[in-house]
Amino acid sequence: MIKAKKSLGQNFLIDQNVIDKIINLIDIKNKSILEVGPGTGNLTKNILKKKPKKILLVEKDSRFLELLNKDSNSIIKIINQDILKIDENELDDDILTVFGNLPYNISTEILCKWILNINDKKFWFNYLVLMFQKEVADRLLAKFNTKNYGRLSILTNWKLKVEKICDVKPSSFSPKPKVDSSILLFQPKSDFFFLKNGKNLEKLTRVFFMHRRKMLKKPYKILFHDNFEIANKLRIDLNLRPQNLNFEVYYNLAKEYENLRS
User: Fold this and answer.
1) DSSP label of 225
2) CATH for the stretch 6-188
3) How open is the CA angle 258-260-261, to the nearest 5 degrees?
4) CA separation for the pair 195, 218 (Å, rounded)
5) Half-sphere exposure in the Cβ direction for 179 (13 Å, CA)
6) Is a pLDDT exceeding 70 seen at residue 191?
7) Rounded mean pLDDT of 9-26?
8) Which end of the chain offers a freer environment for a tag, N or C, measured as fewer CB atoms within 10 Å?
9) What are the structural domain ranges in the chain?
10) Count of CB atoms situated within 10 Å of the CB of 48
11) SS (HEC) of 101-153
12) Which residues pair with 181 in a beta bridge?
C-alpha cells in the first residue's frame, strides 16, 4: 500500500457513500472529465462506471502512476504534472467536468488560479465538484457582513455560483485528517462583472482584508492615495470595515483601480 505524503496534503477518500454522492451530482455519461489528484483511483473507478467520453487524470505523485495505469483503459489519459503548472485552458478541446479531492495545502491556490485564468467568458469547464477543508469552504461560501467574508468569497462569487453539497467527516479518508471537509459544487456565471485583469481584484481584496478589523481608510489610501472621489462616487463610508462592503462594491472598486492604472 502506498503511504500518503503529508507534504502533498494527501488524504484519500475511501467512503463509498461519499463517493456515490459525488458522482451522482451530475450526469457525466458521454462527458469529458478532469480529475485532479486521483491518487489511489478510488473515485476514478466509480467515474468510469458512469460511462464518460474520456477522463483526464492529473497526478503529481509518480508513485501512483503504475496503479492508475493498471486499471486504465483507452478513455483515460494520465498527466504526471503539478496542476498549478498546467495551463488548464489548453488541457482539452472539450468542455470539462472537474472532480477533485484537492490537497488542502494548495486547494485555494488551485481555485484562485482557475478563476483568474478564465479567458473572458469562455469557460473551460461546466462544473467543478471539489472537496475543501470545511473552514476554507465556509470562507468560499461567506456573504458580506459575516466573519468568514473576505478575499476568497469575493473572488469566487465574481465568476462562479457556488453551492454546498455536504460536510464530510475525517473517518471518510485515509489517513484521517484532523478537520472536517466539505464538498462544493461550482458553476460558471453566464454574466459577470467585466474586469480587464482579475489580478487587480485579487490585489485589491488582499490589501483590504490584510487588516480586516481596521477601518477602510488605511487600505483605501494604500491603493487610491488621497483620491477620495472614487469613495464618494461609490458611496463608500471609509469608517466601515472590509466585511461591510458587498461583492458589487469590490468589483466596482477593482474597476476604478484598473482605470487609474491604465
Assistant:
1) T
2) 3.40.50.150
3) 65
4) 24
5) 13
6) yes
7) 90
8) N
9) 6-188, 198-261
10) 18
11) ECCCCCHHHHHHHHHHCCECCECCEEEEEEEEEHHHHHHHHCCCCCCCCCHHH
12) 133, 168
Contact (Cβ atoms closer than 8 angstroms) between residue 107 and residue 136: yes
**Which residue, among 233, 241, 117, 189, has the nearest Cα to 253 in the 3D structure?**
233
Please state which CATH class domain 198-261 belongs to: mainly alpha
The alpha carbon of 90 is separated from its chain's Cα centroid by a whole number of angstroms, namely 18
Q: Of 49, 100, 45, nearest to 70 (Cα)?
A: 45
CB neighbour class for 220 (10 Å; exposed up to 12, middle 13-18, buried from 19): buried
Task: Say which residues have a Cβ less than 8 Å from residue 14's Cβ, sequence separation at least 6.
Answer: 42, 172, 173, 174
Residue 176 pLDDT more than 80? yes
Query: C-alpha grid cell for residue 190?
Result: 453566464
Measured at the CA of 154, the angle between CA 152 and CA 158, to 5 degrees, comes to: 115
State the cell numbers at 69: 495505469
Contact 185, 125 (CB under 8 A): no
**Residue 54 to residues 17, 33, 98, 130, Cα–Cα distance (Å):** 24, 6, 12, 19
**Residue 232: burial class (beta carbons within 10 Å; 0-12, 13-18, 19+):** exposed
Name the average pLDDT for the chain.
92
Q: Of 2, 18, 7, whose CA–CA distance to 173 is shortest?
A: 18
Q: How far apart are CA 203 and CA 58, in angstroms?
A: 29
- In this chain, the answer to whether the domains covering 6-188 and 198-261 adopt an identical fold is no
Tens-digit pLDDT profile for residues 208-259: 999 888 999 999 999 999 999 999 999 999 999 999 999 999 999 999 999 9
Query: Quick one: three-class SS letters along 2-34?
Result: CCCCHHHCCCEECCHHHHHHHHCCCCCCCCEEE
